[in-house]
Amino acid sequence: MPETTGIVRACSSGNVTIETAGGSYCLSREEIRDILVFGRRIPLRQHNGIIDGDAIAYSTPSGKGIIICLASVAYLVPRDSFVLVASGAADSTPLAAIPRG
Mean pLDDT, to the nearest integer, of 17-25? Predict the structure, then answer.
């Protein structure tokens, strides 16, 4: 079973914060929409606004999960859980580390 090493938290205005051992990142409502509706890969921004070139978020090919991919580790969150946090219906949801390969 994968180790839980991160969390997605709801923020104001429909934004989310992704907190991992490797850093803290934010996704705006527009970026969340681009991932969920259009299936785009979104580069992750640190809280100071700097884009981390090695960090992206995207939907799984099946559409049932969201992958948060950092330079050294990748995380998975179920789509339904991510949507609950993004909509404000849940405060947070854990990220599960997954093998990269």
Answer: 89
Return the CA Rg of the chain: 12
Amino acid letter at 96? A
Tokens read off for 93: 């949801």
Q: CB neighbours (10 Å) of residue 57? A: 25
Contact 4, 94 (CB under 8 A): yes
Segment 57-86, tens digit of pLDDT? 999 999 999 999 988 889 999 999 999 999
Is 3's pLDDT higher than 80? Answer: no
Considering only residues 92 and 47, tell me which one the structure prediction assigns the higher pLDDT.
92
4 contacts: CB under 8 Å, gap ≥ 6: 94, 95, 96, 97
Cα-Cα end-to-end distance for the chain: 17
As given in the structure block, the two tokens for residue 12 are: 């104001």
Whether 18 and 94 have beta carbons less than 8 Å apart is answered as: no
